[in-house]
Amino acid sequence: MEEEFKNLIKVSFCVLMSLAYCHLVSSNISKGKFRLLSITPIIFVFTILPTFLTFLLPNAIATLFFTWMANFKLLLFAFGQGPLASDDHQPKSLIQFISIACLPIKIKRNGSNPTSKRSPKLPLNWPTKFLILAISVGLHDYMELFVHPKIVLLSYCGLVYLVVDIIFGACNTIVHFILNVDLEQPSDEPYLATSLQDFWGRRWNLMITNLLRHTIFNPVRSSLETLLGQWAPLPATLATFVVSGLMHELIFYRLTRTSPSWEVTCFFVLQGLCVVVEFSVKRLLAGRWRLYPAASAVLTVGFVLATANWLFFPPLVRTGAVERAIDECKVLKFV
């Protein structure tokens, strides 16, 4: 554990120095290929940096934060776009630049996200989620002994939701305290989604959704609009899910330390195909037929859970990554 803390400090220092370079040097280079060239070494560093962490959870979080999110934000920044770009010709401060680049946050703008003002149907605050997660981790060994394996597998969906929401929520709290800015919520009660579009586009992991929208969906849609017209969002949606699947495959590779099975990529490709079908059916029906919200919510969440149990979790369970991750959570409770 002591050695891992030392590695974590070294990785954090390297991230800070790399982003300081991007802010002080790359931001003064004209946007385009020359700024991209100046940022390319940092993208390479952020890709390999998580491999210096030996524990599974820190490695996976670092891969998500740096290899995926920070690199995608830097790619947008290279062309003067995205959250790192200057606002109204006012450059961001160094601490703002670093916080936005390496953490899963999005500064709230007036009218930017009306759903963030909506009162939650199931008010679970951050401490409550942390308590539920701690209890779930503590009971995991007993569940494996006395509960059906399929139910245990289903419980992992709740654990993933809690872990992601707690980590992203903690980042929100820290940045809000340091910068005194209002931030978008990391998710919007995904268990109440009434369609796959609603789940993946407006409720689950909104920081990743927003980043993929700007880096993959919008460019692909724009490039195909002349050819496909109003149907251009369909291949753009599928491309977005393919990229998401590949990035998750990298995270799983870092978690399992085994060769990719490509099951998680298939999970996201399947979700993308179903979103495309759902979008097409809705457009063809033009609102002439619609399920009750409660029924559509059950079908949507049920489909996501069923396909997650089929394709998403088996690689983690088969390689023992889930057990090791839960053991690490237990260790952290006593540190």
SSE map:
Elements: H1 2-24, H2 33-48, H3 56-78, H4 94-102, H5 126-146, H6 149-179, H7 196-203, H8 206-228, H9 233-256, H10 263-285, H11 293-312, H12 314-318, H13 321-333
Helix pairs in contact: 1-2, 1-4, 2-3, 3-8, 3-9, 5-6, 5-13, 6-11, 8-9, 9-10, 10-11
Question: Can you count the beta strands?
Answer: 0
Net shape: globular
Distance between the termini: 9 Å
Helix and strand composition category: mainly alpha
Tell me roughly what share of residues is in helical segments: over 70%
Main sheet summary: none
Percent of sequence in beta strands = under 5%
In round numbers, the mean pLDDT is 88
Low-confidence stretches: none
Rg computed from alpha carbons, rounded to a whole number of angstroms:
20 Å
Give the helix tally. 13
* Helix-strand sequence: HHHHHHHHHHHHH
Pathway: Secondary metabolite biosynthesis
GO molecular function, one term: O-acyltransferase activity
Keywords: Acyltransferase, Lipid metabolism, Membrane, Transferase, Transmembrane, Transmembrane helix
Membrane topology: Multi-pass membrane protein
